[in-house]
Amino acid sequence: MGDQMQFIVEKLNQEPFRKNYNLISFDSLEGLQLLQLLSDVLGEIDPKHAVDIREELPEQTAKRMLNLLGILKYKPPGTVSDLSAFRQGLVTGSKTVIHPVLHWLLQRTNELRTRAYLARFLVKLEVPAEFLQDDAVADFNKQYEELMEAFKNLHKEHEQLKISGLSTAEIRRDISAMEEEKDQLAKRVERLKKRVETVQNHQRMLEIARQLRLEKEREESLAQQKQEQKSQLFHAEQRLQRAQAQLKEMQQVVADSKPESLMKKLEEEINFNSYLVTEKIPREMESKKTSVYFLQKVAAEPAMTQADLTALQSEMDEVNAEINQLIEKRIITYEPTDSKFSMYRQQASIISRKKEAKAEELQAAKEEMSSLERQVEQKSSQAHEQGGSEALTEDEFKQYVSKLRSKNTLYKKKRQEIAEITAEYGILQRTEELLRQRHEAVQQQLQAIEEKKGISGYSYTQEELERVSAVKSEMDEVKGQTLDNMSEMVKKLNAMVAEKKASLAPVIKELRQLRQSCQELTQECEEKKIQYDSCAAGLETNRSALEQEVKGLLEECAQEESNYRYINCMKRSLEIQLQRAKEEMKAYVSSDPQERRRAVREQYTRIILEQENLGKKLREKQKVVRESHGPNMKQMKMWQDFEQLMECKRECFLKQQNQAAIGQIIQEGGKDRLVL
């Protein structure tokens, strides 16, 4: 409790309250002052509640505060009986009620200020159902709900912009950093200009560099356009392929189906859709509306405590017990005449449940099929991007299998032919080897004959000359063909260059005009940007000055308003005192003794006389007590001595009795011994 009070005092001493309390002064506040303090805190959260509670009735004050605390979702501690005590304490200004409320409000002032602001626009007005039957009222209510939703969206966007936006200080720092960078760049440009001026033909070189930069930018833009056109072409091809596949499927469906089957399929689809529209969807919508209604009702109610939840749980248990009792009574009073109808009802309910289950399964199957189709399209697009082929349909796959079988048969035939050719190749290779051996033997014989005749090497030289002449003729033929091909290629290239020049001439002419207009627009854009920056800087300076001025004026206004309230309160208190003084003077001057008795002076005079008489009586009593103090003390001492004397006598008497009893016991024991 002490920590709570310490926190409240610290918060009230800060802005915007500035109460200058301490723990003692805050704890000594009366109920009316605590209520005014609570009203001031609520007025800081919601300006509509910044009122003087002396100008309104206590019931109005309590109702106003309870409404705002309900909007702010304040949870009073305790059970339902404690809630009534909370309301009573709020009316009377009890410390045990006001202190926790102040502690809760001061902990989250900013959050509650936002909630109170939103409550002005988002607390829905409940319109009775009978008034909503009117079309005009229904239209206004619908428009009201739409405006409420629009306000929600705009508030969310505003909060996001506040979170993501930069402050003026950050913008100024960025502007100053950009200005510094601009100055550095200007200095670098000046230094580079001075360096370039010493070079010969620097103007021409600068012009060439500028043209090179422009051509590079143009090249980048053309490459980007080419990429965009490629992507557009790819998407268009995908759409075309999907359309062709759908057309092929439709053609196959039309070719394979008959009118009767198509009509039957359409009737099944119509029946299913009509079942969804007339039975399933309305039932689901009704259940959703019911749940939304209950959720809205729960959200509109104030926050529930654990005690409320336990009470609701007990009510639910009681209702369930009543339901079970009614079911048991119904079973006991069950009439056998309704057995057939109940059987039919059970069958109808079973069939309806099966129908609903099948409809849900069909809906789930359709959703799964649509998701699988989307996955197939996605996979096909990925395969196309990676350079692969599209997925085959069922008919295409059958055609592919038939082609594969025919190719397999052809492969087996070719394999057999290759085996036969391989065998024949072995035979020919053996024949070649035998012929080579024979040729070598004949060559050896020919060389021996040439040596005998004296013309060795004649046959080899003749063969070499024949081989060289054959190679030369082949080379001459290849050179002639190459020269012809090159001349034809040169003619084609010249024709293509001339055609490209003719086609690009108007484009180049138009490009020159566009470049000139682009330069003009760029220069104009830079000028406008400079003007905008200067204007924005000036407006920002003016805005900051105006913000400071407005802030100062607001503070001055708040101070003056506080002074006005203080002076007004002092004026009222002085007026009340003056009125009381006038009434007192009127009563004192009045000749009526009853009126004079009601005067404050007469009342105080009477009280003073009573107190004086009481003081005289007390002084007399004190004098009597002082005079009788000595004898009384002496008498009290005598009584104390008398009490001690009597106590001493009692102890002696008790000792004498004990000794007499012991002597009697000894005498009885001696007599017994004598008898024995």
How do the helices and strands line up, and which of them pair or pack?
Layout: H1 2-13, H2 23-27, H3 31-45, H4 58-71, H5 80-92, H6 95-107, H7 109-122, H8 135-164, H9 168-197, H10 202-256, H11 259-300, H12 306-332, H13 339-385, H14 394-453, H15 458-589, H16 593-597, H17 600-627, H18 629-675
Helix pairs in contact: 1-6, 3-6, 4-5
Account of the 3D structure:
- The chain has about 675 residues and is an all-alpha fold.
- Among the domains are: about 1-125, Actin-binding Protein, T-fimbrin, domain 1, CATH 1.10.418; about 590-625.
- About 85% of the residues lie in helices and about 0% in strands.
- It is built from 18 helices and no strands.
- Helix 1 (about 1-15) crosses helix 6 (about 95-105) and helix 4 (about 60-70) packs across helix 5 (about 80-90).
- The longest helix has about 130 residues, at about 460-590.
- The relative contact order is 0.02.
- The mean pLDDT is about 80.
- One of its GO terms (biological process) is spermatogenesis.
- This is Intraflagellar transport protein 81 homolog.
- It is found in: Cytoplasm, Cytoskeleton, Cilium basal body.
Query: How many E strands?
Result: 0
What average pLDDT do the residues reach? 79
Could you give the distance between the termini? 88 Å
Going by CATH, the architecture of the domain at 1-123 would be Orthogonal Bundle
**Series of H and E elements:** HHHHHHHHHHHHHHHHHH
* Number of helices in the DSSP assignment: 18
CATH topological fold name of the domain at 1-123:
Actin-binding Protein, T-fimbrin, domain 1
**Looking at the structure, what is the overall shape?**
elongated
Domain IFT81 calponin homology: 3-126
GO molecular function: tubulin binding
Family: Belongs to the IFT81 family.
Protein name: Intraflagellar transport protein 81 homolog
